């Protein structure tokens, strides 16, 4: 009996972000510089546009392609922003955020210790995608997190 095909291929997880980007080739270079990405695959059209690419960041797969209006695939720049963000866990959030800003990202939230146990900051990359970059620094019980959230809403209402 032949080995069955794996339903989720090796190296992939059940959920994989797939970004639509205006300037995907430039974005790949940015992600290499900012986040240490490794390019794994790139399929280009005859005019050089990226039809499909895969990069690895910290062991995770991120897929991306150039904007394709004819396929209803629009970038955040065309749409005026994106309602989604990518969360990237790293060993040293301060160093990664600094490197991303130096590479051209815009800092949207300073790196700071968060009540839920992460040290985190936020960025918008030059292509309009939002990134939350974090290093987990403390395990926090769920009840403590819920208490902090409740206090935040109490404070906001006074």
UniProtKB/TrEMBL annotation:
Domain VOC: 11-136
Pfam families associated with the record: Glyoxalase
CDD domains: VOC_like
InterPro entries the UniProt entry points to: Glyas_Bleomycin-R_OHBP_Dase, Glyas_Fos-R_dOase_dom, VOC_core
Identification of the protein by name: VOC family protein
UniProt organism field: Azohydromonas caseinilytica
């Amino acid at each position: 009996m032949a080995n069955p095909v794996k339903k989720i291929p090796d190296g992939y997880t059940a959920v994989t972000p797939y970004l639509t980007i205006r300037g995907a080739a430039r974005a790949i270079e940015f992600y290499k510089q900012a986040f240490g990405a490794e390019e794994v695959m790139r399929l280009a059209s005859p005019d050089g546009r990226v039809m499909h690419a895969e990069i690895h960041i910290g062991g995770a797969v991120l897929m991306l392609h150039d904007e394709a209006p004819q396929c209803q695939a629009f970038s955040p720049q065309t749409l005026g922003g994106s309602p989604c963000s990518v969360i990237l866990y790293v060993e040293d959030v301060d160093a990664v955020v600094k490197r991303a800003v130096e590479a051209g990202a815009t800092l949207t939230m300073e790196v700071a210790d968060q009540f839920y146990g992460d040290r985190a900051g936020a960025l918008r990359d030059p292509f309009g995608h939002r990134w939350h970059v974090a290093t987990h620094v403390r395990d926090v019980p769920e009840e403590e997190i819920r208490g902090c959230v409740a206090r935040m809403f109490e404070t906001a209402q006074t």
